[in-house]
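All the exercises in this workshop are built on plain-text protein records. A learned vocabulary of local backbone shapes supplies the integers on the structure line. Once this layout is familiar, the rest of the handout is easier to follow. An example says more than a description, so a record of this kind follows:
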Amino acid sequence: MTPSVQDGSPRSILLTFTKFFWIFLSAENLYDTGIYIFVLLYNLYLLDLGYREDFLGWVTAAMSAGSIIGSLPAAAIVHRLGLKRTLICSSAGVALLCMGRTASLGGAWLIATAFAAGVISAIWAVSLVPVVAALTTDRNRPLGYSLWCGWGIGLGVLCGVLAGALPGWILKWDLAASPTAAKRLALLFGAAVALFSPILLVRLPLGGRAATGPKIFPRSPFVVRYLVVSTVWNIGVGVFNPFFSAYFARQLHLSVERIGFIFSASQLAQLGALMAAPLVLKRFGVVSGTSMMQAGVALSLALLSTGPSAAIAGIVYAMYGSFQYMSEPGVFTLLMSRVEPAERAGVSSLNFFVMSASQAAAAAIAGTAVVRFGYQPVLIFAAVTTALSAYLFRRLLQEFNRP
């Protein structure tokens, strides 16, 4: 018997999505595919050009700083242009900037284009949540958000393998004369794939201005405590996240292909961990469960600091990414459940600002520290900081715990 759309089964809820939701998801997948390829290979391309981790840190910091700046006017831009035009312009802008970031025009150019990409990426990111809401109903919206998040992670599994193999294929097919040129061509390919996203977005029925209400920034004790913990957490993960590919290339001397495989395996582990997160949160409560996951991140970073073999490092990195992704549902659930509905946009903006600012500072300092002292002390610092975050999450937010 074919289920009706009223029986509440997962299949029946899937049937309630309109074709426009699937068009949006397809456009998002094209964008994510191109950006995954670009992000995985870009630092390796800069290393080939002769730059070191301190410069990579400044590039990451510039992009994070751009994200901070871009998040401030994003709501006004969406209100003026509407969701559809904002999405089209921002996704196309990021893709074109990715092409520009491959040009070898000096450090100032690379930092400036990274900053610009951060500004426009923030506008794109701020637009995504209301787009999903506009293309779903009250009944299927939770599943819509799950599909949107989970599909992107699953896509990373395939994109990691593809990105790792692309430079080798390009050389094999005699499309480039050197490994550096092959990486540049692969980066341009990724940007071109992302550029197909706005072509699909044209079909979405999202014309007109978006409805916006007053911006309310809550100042409750919970919000203050949460932002303190968020600052510590994002400093800890921001120290290592931008340098994972450089860590495996320089510290462990792995090839691009093997780095791509590790990235894909990690994405697969993260997808499984994300599906398991609700069970952990239900068993231990939001605060306690999230604190445990953050402690798992700290343990993983501590293990990486011991200088393991390449095989062990790959496994530990998968653990690191899994615990990090597992913590996100708990963090966002707690954040959204402890403020009034009218305050959610404001607290989300505060969280995004704190996250971007903390990670920008962490990346800039960590890049310089890696060049001067190596990866081990930086990883130890990251482990201690994320362990402190796990403790503070439980200590400061325990009274807000809900099973």
Notes: Residues 141-172 form the longest helix (32 residues). Confidence is low (pLDDT under 50) at residues 1-6.
